[in-house]
Amino acid sequence: MSTLWTPSGEHEVPRDDPSAAAAASSDPPEADDGGLEVDPETGIPIDPRTGEPFDPGELAEMEAQLREAQEQLTSVPAAEIVQNHMMGLFELAALHLRREPPDLAEARLPIDALGLLVENLADQLPAGETLMGALQQIRVAYVEIHKRQAEA
Predict the structure, then answer these.
(1) What is the 3-state secondary structure (H, E, C) of 89-129?
(2) For the segment 94-104, what is each residue's pLDDT rounded down to a tens digit?
(3) What pLDDT digit, counting tens, does each position of 34-56 carry?
(4) Does the first or last residue of the chain, that is N or C, have fewer Cβ atoms within 10 Å of its Cβ?
């Protein structure tokens, strides 16, 4: 039995004989933790888009795509991925600050999250100094925009 990750959670996917997997279970099929129901006849998760069991070929393809994505993700150093997400927080804050009018309330959370990460992880990341500079830059921009809005 393998698993398939979906936005609603991870789901067990039978490999060879789906009916054998369903027959092996003495419990009636129910929605799993991810919310997908299982077809009682085949033991295959039901596609919420169609109400029908997933096509076994489609499940196999999704499983292969998941394995490929996992391989790609694990081939990159964790520090690079963390740095990328941190810059994503910077960009999210900048987007809210560039709106017309700037949305300070929405910019505050990604700035604070970036601050927590930079202040606690910068010394462990190759781009730590760059991230500290980015944090300072976005904080200054926030303060300047806040002052302009207060004066208006």
Answers:
(1) HHHHHHHHHHCCCCCHHHHHHHHHHHHHHHHHHHHHCCCHH
(2) 999 999 999 99
(3) 567 888 988 888 888 888 888 88
(4) C
